[in-house]
Amino acid sequence: MSKSREFKRRIRSVDNTRQITRTMEMVATSKLKRCSDRVHASSPYGDALEEIVRSLYDPELAGRFPLMRRPSEIRRVAVLLLTANRGLAGAFNVNLIRMAREVMAQAEEKGQEVELHVVGKKGITFFRFQGVEMASTDTSLDDYPSPEDAARLVEGLRESFEEGRIDQLIVVGSEFRSALSTPPRARQILPIEPPEGDVVPPENYILSPSADVMLSRLLPLYVRNRIFRALVENAAAEQGARRTAMKNATDNATDLLGDLRRSYNRVRQAQITQEIAEIVGGAAAFE
After folding, report:
1. Helix, strand, coil: what percent of the chain each, to 5?
2. Cβ of 142: how many Cβ atoms within 10 Å?
3. Contact 264, 11 (CB under 8 A)
4. N or C terminus of the chain: which is more exposed, having fewer CB within 10 Å?
């Protein structure tokens, strides 16, 4: 009987685990819908803003607008890594950390100094365990980051670039292509990339109140918006990865339950057969 009780205990344990993973899958599915809607909603505005800023790009403006500065040599690089505060999302955090380490290694190979800024408990825990110095950390983001969160994260980095303390800002986060495709990606935020191909010259725009006033407002907004888009994409990718991981765990638990129940039935059948044989043997002994 002890063997059958052990199987029953394992069946209850796996069934409880399956209920938890199924619930987490449903929660992640619900959050994924809202997060993906925010990604799609932020795209038109962000694309239009990026197109305007790049089309207005002019090297002569760098003297008046430090955010348009293009350093002749990249000496110091700031890497902003976006990870999650929670696990149970498959290889989501591992892939992001690996990408950040590759970016840092490439910069160091070029003789560039790297300062690391980490968002999310998973990334902070990893680099702290590795003994890597972090310039800043943040664990305050929730599942639905706001523009204010982006402004808080990038404000100090933007000022560092304007004052020449850093020459490049790279954000490492997940690119949200679909619920099943969320590869890690390194985005260069600063310096602002010049436009590619043929664009409308700046002088063909009618700017009001003036180019200087508009750029002084647009450039910080552009940087903040790019960080915000990276945050919402990363949040959606996290929920997609968690949903996939929890679905796989639920499916594995279901398969394991089937195996355990078959094994339990075989053990129970063998016990019943043995008991019947003992009864028949005892009855034959009295004849």
Report:
1. 65, 10, 25
2. 9
3. yes
4. C
Tokens representing residue 23 in the block:
């619930």
Rounded Cα distance, 248 and 257, in Å: 14
CB atoms within 10 A of CB 31: 19
Count other C-beta atoms under 10 Å from residue 72's C-beta. Answer: 7
For position 99, what pLDDT does the model report?
Answer: 96
pLDDT of 21: 93
Q: Which of 80-84, 209-213, 229-233 shows the lowest per-residue confidence on average (mean pLDDT)? A: 209-213
Which listed CATH number (1.10.3470, 1.10.287, 2.30.29, 3.30.1120) goes with 2-23+245-285? Answer: 1.10.287
Instruction: Break the chain into its structural domains and give their ranges.
Output: 2-23+245-285, 34-238
> How large is the average pLDDT for residues 24-37?
93
Dist. CA 183–CA 7, nearest whole Å: 40
Q: How many beta carbons lie within 10 A of that of residue 65, not counting itself? A: 18
Q: What is the pLDDT of residues 61-73, one digit of tens each?
A: 667 788 888 888 8
Which of these ranges, 27-41, 51-65, 83-97, 148-162, has the smallest mean pLDDT? 51-65
Q: Does domain 34-238 have CATH number 3.40.1380.10?
A: yes
